[in-house]
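step: validate -> pass
step: tokenize input -> pass
step: predict -> running
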Amino acid sequence: MLTGIMPIITLNGVPLSWPVISTILGNSYFFVITATLLSLFLTGLCLIYKYTPQMLNDLRAFTNNDLADKGLIVWMIFILLIPLFFDVGPMMLLLWWILFLWGYLIPAEKRIAFFFVFLILMSIWIAHIGAGFITYTENQLNRQIYTTEHKLVNETDAAQIASWIATHPADAEPMNTMALIEINRSNYSEAIRLLNRSIDLDPGNPRFYNHLGLALIGSGKTKEAFKAFQNSIVLMPDNVVYNYNLSRLYQSTYNFYEGEKAIASASGLDADRVRHLLDEENAVGRTRYIQECSPLRLHLARQMKPSKELRSVADALWTFAFGMIPRKASIFLAFACLFVFLMMGYVPDDKFTKRCSRCGKLYYSGARTITGNPMCLQCHWVDVKTKKQQGSILHHKTEEIRKYKTYSYQKLLKLELMLPGLGSFLTNRTSTALIRMSVLSASLVAIITGGQFIISFTPVAIEYTGIIRIIGIISLGLLMIRAYKAPPIRYGVL
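step: predict -> pass
step: emit ->
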């Protein structure tokens, strides 16, 4: 997704400018969101793999074993893939799987489901913020405001700003931007008119008074310029620029005493910057007044301000992930899922097949371990009996559990190496599985995208995508080593 390109080579004086920061934030934001959604989707695939045997067992019981397993498997596949017959995204498919598997999930996995529903609830704002980063150079004159303040504006940009002012008469910031263009054109009367309109709309903005002072100086209205600079200082007394400009105006009118007082006030706020400004003034050999750039919070506020373009991109992002249901209905979708989860909670547990986490047997009626994992009644009996009470039957059950763990070791290790986190899900080590799935997703996203999702203002001299891909490869390698050295279960251990 490209939002316009402006190489950093043209912005040598502002290497940490907002366009560059916005690009970094935007790419980081989409990296986190993409990795999160990918890890959730892979988690859904793991849950499908984990619980299809239980589902098959329930279907056998429901049909009284009248249908062959192949027919039941076809029915299972059809049910799980029903959303694909509609215009849905991968996250909608994941939501269907969670709803379908809800009765089988252990408490830790249900918490993942609740987290996913929370993301759906917040997705209207998540998509909005993402759209704000994508539409940075097209939305709310962000690019034109920035290029004007750094004297990179062209006639096309100026025409766009003028057109925006004509259609948005209550937006003060573009008027201030257009006034800067008129000041650079030496068209001071028009700049004064635009700045007076800006001040009428936003009388508490000190930057407007500062720029009005510059326009008044250009038109020879020194007394009014003094008043404009003083107004800006009253509104923001700790601003170096306003005190510095006032001192330069005193200096140009030969009022050296007041000029020294003003420069002393500016130096008291930031002596190093004042010295730098004075050195620059001495280098050019004339009095220089400073135009103030918009603060970062203003750029961010305008960047995220709702508009037709932003809403269109936000809807496109939502549709790509979920599809079918409009973005504005995401809140209702989330609450509907919560309602279904609550209703499913009233269905008795013995209606769903469970697999014992100790011996691997399928059962309907059983107990749970301290951590909430399913456990058959026989294994529960082993736990509650003391060592003195253990006889040959208990010894036989203990050996059965040990053999199951030993038999499962190689299979689980292969699954963990094939898809880090899958084996951990099968052994109900949900936290370990989530960590490995998250690292896997982040590594894959880094390798595939190189961390670049949007382009607005990017450094042409720095090729960071290759570095991020290398980091992704290293992270993936370390994850595979960790999965091999720390398998889901230790060999032959209960």
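step: describe -> Residues 1-14 have pLDDT under 50 and may be disordered.
step: cleanup -> pass
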